[in-house]
């Protein structure tokens, strides 16, 4: 049985490809999901790829990952900078957590420079565009001992 990785996406990422393409690029979230599924198969992993605009929904998915997902890759989007609730949920999760940002949050407005989630994340990728998701999945494969 391939190990399951939860890939969670926060608010406004449903608009990827349409929203500020000069910052986030032209690929859609469906494109990212498709590329991740393909790569997961190569890596001997299974993924659950989800997006929500609602903080509580993201927290529910993190709680559901307990005992089911071998790792979590999360782009918490704007909630990175505000959500102690998402941080607490991740702190109650045992497996590796990787945080992804499509843009380089450190090159942007000062309010994006701090992420609550980074306090829990085992690794952070920012500014690699949507390629950051694939890089995070490769790293996750090493962390959970897949090929
Ligand atoms: C983001 C960066 C956040 O600051 C922003 O609120 C997002 C996306 C990124 O992927 O670059 O919505 O997480």
How would you characterize the overall build of this protein?
This protein has a five-stranded parallel β-sheet, sandwiched between helices. The model has no long low-confidence stretch (mean pLDDT 97). The radius of gyration is 14 Å and the shape is globular. 35% of the residues lie in helices and 19% in strands. It is built from five helices and five strands, in the order βααβαβαββα. The protein has helices spanning 21-24, 29-43, 55-65, 84-91, 131-144, and strands at 3-9, 45-51, 71-75, 97-101, 123-126. β3, α4 and β4 form a beta-alpha-beta unit. By secondary structure, the chain is α/β, with parallel strands linked by helices. The chain has one domain (3-144): 3-Layer(aba) Sandwich (Rossmann fold). Bound molecules: 1,3,4-trihydroxy-5-OXO-cyclohexanecarboxylic acid. 1,3,4-trihydroxy-5-OXO-cyclohexanecarboxylic acid binds next to loops.
Query: What order do the SSEs take from the amino end to the carboxyl end, as H and E?
Result: EHHEHEHEEH
Largest sheet: 5 strands, parallel
Instruction: List the ligand species.
Output: 1,3,4-trihydroxy-5-OXO-cyclohexanecarboxylic acid
CATH-defined topology: Rossmann fold
State which percent range the strand residues make up.
Answer: 15-25%
Strand line-up of the largest beta sheet: 2-1-3-4-5
> What's the CATH H-level superfamily name?
Dehydroquinase, class II
* Top-tier CATH class: Alpha Beta
What share of residues is helical?
A: 25-40%
User: What is the CATH architecture term?
Assistant: 3-Layer(aba) Sandwich
- Overall pLDDT level: 97
Low-confidence stretches: none
| Class by SSE composition | alpha/beta
- Tally the helices: what do you get? 5
Distance between the termini: 13 Å
Number of domains: 1
> How many strands appear in the DSSP assignment?
5
Shape: globular
Computed Rg: 14 Å
């Amino acid at each position: 049985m391939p190990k399951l990785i939860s890939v969670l996406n926060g608010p406004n990422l449903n608009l990827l490809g349409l929203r500020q393409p000069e910052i986030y690029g032209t690929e859609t979230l469906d494109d990212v999901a498709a590329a991740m599924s393909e790569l997961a198969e190569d890596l001997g992993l299974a993924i659950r790829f989800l997006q929500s605009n609602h903080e509580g929904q993201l927290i529910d998915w993190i709680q559901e990952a307990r005992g089911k997902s071998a790792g979590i890759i999360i782009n918490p989007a704007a909630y990175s900078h505000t959500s102690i609730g998402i941080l607490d949920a991740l702190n109650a999760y045992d497996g590796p957590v990787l945080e992804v940002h499509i843009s380089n949050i450190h090159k942007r407005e000062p309010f994006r420079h701090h992420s609550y989630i980074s306090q829990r994340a085992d690794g952070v990728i920012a500014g690699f565009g949507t390629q950051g998701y694939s890089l995070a999945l490769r790293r996750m494969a090493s962390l959970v001992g897949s090929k």
